[in-house]
Amino acid sequence: MHKSSKLQTTSKTKNIKVKQSIGFLKFLAITSVFSVIGGIANPSFAGLKQNSQLTVEIQGLKNRQGQVCLSLFASSRGFPSNSSSAVQSQCVAIATMPLTVTFKNLQPGNYAVAVLHDTNSDNKANRNGLGIPLEGFGFSENPVIRTGPPRFNDAAVLVAGSTTNIQIQLNYLLGG
Predict the structure, then answer these.
(1) Number of other CB atoms surrounding residue 116 within 10 Å
(2) Which residues, 6+ apart, have CB-to-CB distance to 135 below 8 Å?
(3) Which of 18, 24, 119, 171 could connect to 66 by a Cys-Cys bridge, CB 3.0–4.6 Å?
(4) What is the pLDDT of residues 43-84, one digit of tens each?
(5) How far is CA 176 from CA 87, 109, 172, in A?
């Protein structure tokens, strides 16, 4: 092997390594740009706080007696019956049917809503001697009710963006 051909081989090897390095740097630059754009587009990754709202349309009210009480939960803790564990709770008069209620100032995430048509306005779910609800009730995602209340994951909805809209169909097991 001649000295000049050895120099050419070394020179070609260096050129390939330089091109590979430049290619890798371009890859890093492009990935960084997409990471920044992704962080802006998804505030949860960027550490930004966003105020969202959840608008609930309650369907199937039997009448306008009493009030409708809603509890919003951010986890399974207390769901669905312990409103003191709820992120927000409110009772509203039945002005229209269907009734629309909005929860404001929410951070994006998963939430579950429990609704009670409190026909006698006593702020509790009345039951018969067997524990069967005497008043209308419902949950976000409208899970099938069998022998007890749904689990949080069965009723959870993703709240993201400025407004999330859901519909809850009330159930009246004993005619309401």
Answers:
(1) 25
(2) 116, 117, 118, 119, 120, 125, 126, 172, 176
(3) 119
(4) 444 454 679 999 999 999 999 999 999 999 999 999 999 999
(5) 28, 33, 5
Angle at 108 between CA 102 and CA 109, to 5 degrees: 100
What sign does the CA torsion over 39, 42, 46, 49 have? positive
Q: What's the pTM? A: 0.72
Question: Cα 108 to chain center, whole Å?
Answer: 6
Cross-strand pairs, 116: 69, 137
Question: Bridge partners of 72?
Answer: 88, 113
40 sits in which H/E element: helix 3-41
Q: Domain 52-169 in CATH: superfamily? A: Carboxypeptidase-like, regulatory domain (2.60.40.1120)
For residue 54, what are its two tokens? 């959840």
- The structural domains of the chain, with segments of one domain joined by +, span 3-44, 52-169
Task: Give the span between the Cα atoms of 115 and 68, in whole angstroms.
Answer: 7
- Which pLDDT value is given to residue 147? 87
For the chain, the average pLDDT equals 83
Ranges under pLDDT 70 in the chain: 1-49, 176
